[in-house]
Amino acid sequence: MLLAHRIRIDPTLEQRAYFARAAGTARRVWNWALAEWQRQAALGLKPNALALKKQFNAIKYAHPDWLDEQGQPWLLTIHRDAHAQPFAHLAKAWSRYFAQRRAGEKAHPPRFKTKGRCRDAFYLANDKFRLEGAAAVLPKVGRVALREALRWPGRILGASVSREAGHWFLSVQVDVPDAVARRRRTGDTIVGVDLGVNRAATLSTGETIAAPRPLKAALRRLRIRGRRLSRKIEAAKTRAGIAGNIPKGTRLPASKNRTKGGQALARLQARIARVRRDFTHKLTTRLCRENRAVVIEDLNVRGMLANARLARAIADVGFYEIRRQLQYKADRYGTTIVLADRWYPSSKLCSGCGERNGILSLGERAWHCAACGVHHDRDVNAAVNLERLATAALEAGQALPVASPAATPGTAAGQLPAGGGKVTPVRHEHGRQDGSGQEENAAHFRARSR
Same structural domain for residues 159 and 195? Predict the structure, then answer.
């Protein structure tokens, strides 16, 4: 099983400077390769990454663009993996773009990377570094201190060094033996999970898990620091005599105050991401560890984010990230992930008698069933219906469906557990058959988007 461990490292000032140069080299080589790819495509040629790499190797030590002020090839001071891997990344980016186009999905071609506005990272092959306890020996810089040792034994496949808010991290990919990677479950139940904004998750047991909402909590400080940085940039533009947008290729002189302001903003954004990541990992690990089957809805997150009033709150919870982590952790715990059909009316069905409340609006958080008189909390009722959907499949003697791309046409799906099969929308087999009443609306919006 392939697993990755992201470890924070404590480099010296000289090592930090080298990491920054290596990440800048990877970015510049990416931009060169993308520009050359577009140039050849405009001439009617069929560019490929291998040919571009050979073309670059022929000029990288002799072309004036790749020589320093003394006329020496500065790429010799950077390990070759940093300027060799961007070609493989570019090939993968174009392959993903064309695959999305063929599938009829919304796709964006690869874009140029700008310093300060892209992720700083570079790649290391598995035979170019080694780990020695809480330290790593990297090419060109030697021994680097790690905050912790590698968690898993196994064959190391590669690594990448990246920067986040001024801190450097080493991400190591390991092929871990299944006997080590597999984890034992502590429970054998089936649980339905209804995802929400105020409550990140409502379980069919009645338990509600509040969302930390780190962006909402830090939004005021985020705006203050953003305005401070914006004022410093506007002052630099005024001193440089620039009005309006900064011309392409122009770099403003960076003052120490502006650099500190940018770092303060980056640290706050990184903390928001860490709080959300920590919550998501703990929630998904618990769900996979304590249950043999977890039932979630196949939410159209992309469509939900189109709602300007709810987009920030939905993104602050991270619906898709919860689903992505459930899917890869389920393989470690032997847990099955069941995706309920997108139009299954989990909130509108009475979990007591099965009666459908067709007039239930989104603003109603509780309702009474007109048939049996039971009072329902909207989210708990939806979670109970999701649990019964999977339980009915088991009682019918059928194998529970496993998540796969076929279950969610038109939506972005992450890596799925190995061996996953095609999913039949479970509402067509068990439970009420009348749908949620939104299928007509979906067809209308699809027709408008064409």
Answer: no
Same domain, 303 and 411: yes
Residue 138 sits in the same domain as residue 199: no
Same domain, residue pair 66 and 101: yes
The verdict on residue 231 lying in a domain is no
Same domain, 148 and 197: no
Mean pLDDT, 10 residues at a time, the chain of 450 residues: 95 97 97 97 94 96 93 95 96 96 93 92 96 96 96 95 95 94 91 91 93 94 96 91 84 89 95 96 95 90 88 92 93 90 86 82 83 86 88 63 35 33 39 45 50
Question: Encoding tokens for residue 97?
Answer: 């773009």
Domain containing residue 48 = 2-181
What pTM was computed for the model? 0.83
